[in-house]
Amino acid sequence: MVSITSLLTGLLALSSSAVSTAIRRRSITPPEGCPIPTWTVDYFHWFNGSHSLDCIHNQDDINAKGCLCGSNWCEPNPATCNGSMVNVCWTGMPNYQPWGYGPPQTLDIQFADGLTCHDQYIGYRIHDIAHGESNCGYADRGLGRIVAFYGSSDSDSSTGHMDYTLGDGHALKCDNGSSITYSGSVDFELTCTHDADFNATCTAPVFEVPVLSYEWVS
Ligand SMILES: *[C@@H]1O[C@H](CO)[C@@H](O)[C@H](O)[C@H]1NC(C)=O
Ligand SMILES: *[C@@H]1O[C@H](CO)[C@@H](O)[C@H](O)[C@H]1NC(C)=O
Ligand SMILES: *[C@@H]1O[C@H](CO)[C@@H](O)[C@H](O)[C@H]1NC(C)=O
Ligand SMILES: *[C@@H]1O[C@H](CO)[C@@H](O)[C@H](O)[C@H]1NC(C)=O
């Protein structure tokens, strides 16, 4: 019964959105007596500079040397460097904007329910902006909530993707006392503007992440 209902809902959603580029799916119907969350992204803002340091994907950056002078970066010229030449991607460097690099990447996502996510590039995986898990809800990470974002800032208009896992620690209570948790995902329109230096600022209109599956939590 449940599966027929969700199949029909899925088909309806599919046909009514045939005109739009992205296929918008609706949330599932939760098991009887269970609450279901609504995940609405109110605000989405991603800055990816043309010269933001990228020690994860950019081999040139991984190989690059900088001049560490005191607690700052000086011109990376071995002949004039009055500190020491070091790899800009080594850990423990003063900041993520070595001499000659632009401002670091940032990602901000705000949900209507108050969840606020802020990522600032810091050179390792959990802050690998646009390649999966974001820093969203990092403070209560032990509770298992994960908001992952995938996208590209290279073109003016593209499709971003978001996966939302509520996590066992945020499980909701059903009327009969059972605990339930949810996850969902969505493709959304990503619009990027590029300045004269090709720094990209990407935004998205308000969108909802539909809840697509549930799991019982014991
Ligand atoms: C190194 O040289 C730069 C540029 O000449 C100067 O700004 C900086 O203060 C110097 N740093 C040290 C530690 O002497
Ligand atoms: C854009 O990129 C240039 C070159 O990396 C940088 O100097 C500048 O600060 C950037 N602009 C903004 C608004 O971040
Ligand atoms: C971030 O910007 C750089 C420089 O324009 C670009 O090469 C890279 O593909 C961008 N990253 C993503 C995930 O789009
Ligand atoms: C509560 O209801 C769900 C189905 O709606 C069922 O799977 C679960 O076992 C029930 N829990 C209890 C404690 O009866």
TrEMBL record:
Signal peptide segment: 1-20
Keyword Signal annotated: yes
Keywords per UniProt: Signal
Record protein name field: Cyanovirin-N domain-containing protein
